[in-house]
Amino acid sequence: MQFTEAQIAQWLADILWPLLRIGAMMMVAPIFSVRQIPVRFRALLAVLITLIVQPVLAPAPLVPVFSIDALLIAFQQMAIGVALGFLLQMAFNALIFGGQVMAYSMGLGFANMVDPTNGVQVPVVAQFWLILAMLAFLLVNGHLLLIAAVVETFNVLPIASDGLTRAGIWELLSWASRMFAAGLLMAMPVITALLLVNIGMGVVSRAAPQLNIFAIGFPITLMMGLILIWTTLPQVMGSFGGLVNETFEHSLRVLSTR
User: What span, in angstroms and rounded, lies between the C-alpha atoms of 250 and 256?
Assistant: First the structure.
């Protein structure tokens, strides 16, 4: 059995370009990009997914490997994968932002712990929300939906040198405002309730100046904050689920923007 140079080059293109897009997504997307997962495991998983989905993909354009067109195609595939992972990462960062705002309102802004997924310090409230969100994401097979989404991008944006456009990049950057709005909305009930508590303690301190409001104010605020976190947890997780679904829908819209 003999193989021509054109056949070998076509087989290489059919595997290399999808591998770049899937591998870039795994390096950025939540769950897959956590620091505890070795890079070799992520690379092997990307190769396995590429080999599984490659038969259902359209043939890749045949271009010389060492050429400007090949460099443009490689850059576009990595940009598309990074864009998809970045959009979902912002959905998780909305929880971190909301948890930070809530922690400052509770007086827990100084209580930080290292986030094992990103290697940075975040408030304990944000870390609590983030752990629950990851467990819920895995429970509803969100990681499989993410893989299905990156495979669907090959139908929206086939492999070519012109993929993610300038309009799509601006649409991607504008989605960052949605992250701040979603995080603030998740934390708004707790922030509002704690604001009323602080107003009440201010009234008490004016009515009875002999009371040490700083001694009793912090325990009351902390206790009320913990109670409100427990009470609003179902709504927060429901809002996060809606945000993830919105992110998947928005990702296809971003990639198809011309």
Answer: 10
| Closest-CA residue to 186 (of 86, 100, 88) | 100
Q: How many domains does the chain have?
A: 1
Q: What is the mean pLDDT of the chain?
A: 78
Six token digits for residue 213: 């409001």
* Residues linked to residue 225 through DSSP beta bridges, in sequence order: none
| C-alpha to C-alpha distance for 167 and 129, rounded to whole angstroms | 33
Smallest Cα–Cα separation from 106: which of 222, 223, 234? 222
- pLDDT of 202 reads 76
Q: Which of 97, 142, 145 is nearest to 123 (CA)?
A: 97
At 9 the pLDDT is: 66
> Which residues constitute the domain of residue 182?
5-255
Angle between the 124-139 and 213-255 helix axes, to the nearest 10 degrees?
Answer: 40
Question: Exposure pattern of 84-109 as b/e (b: 16+ CB <10 Å)?
Answer: bbbbbbbbbbbbbbbbbbbbbbbebe
pLDDT in tens, 160-181: 666 666 766 777 777 777 777 8
Cα–Cα distance, 145 to 137 (Å, whole number): 10
Give residue 254's pLDDT band: very low, low, confident or very high (50, 70, 90): low
